[in-house]
Predict the structure.
Amino acid sequence: MIFSKKKEQGKGVAYEQWAKIFNVKQTANIVNFLIENDINYQTLEQQAQNSTERFHEISNQLKQKEKQIKKVLELKTNIIYYARTIDIYKQYQKTKDKQNFKKEHNKDIIKHKKAKTFFEKTNQKNLPKMKELQQLYQHLLEKTTDLPIIYKSKKGNAGVSNSKAKHG
């Protein structure tokens, strides 16, 4: 416990005495737990480090999968925009009265141009089929739901009950 913060809150000498005793009791409980479970501090520290490394590894994998999902969704959205607006865009290019046509179909023309720009920016020469994208999306989604489960299972397997090192 941090005494200076509590003193600022108006806690006095009695509180400070109680806090010191409380901290000693908590430390004793920790030491007793380590002794009862035959764990030394170095083993505990190593387990904590291993768990932290696994957490960061799985967290990074999860972030990577989420980025891939975002890219797939963005590609799907632009393919849909493109497919739905291509006929209107072709009509727009052929029409002589572009200004009036654009007034009527401005949203579709903007969506089409946005999709074309996206495909150019991402070097999409041959667009994938929607079925393939949906399968990829489902696969990535499953992976993102599996990773936290894998982490929790590994976290549970790295528990104190599995380490029986001699205390020192």
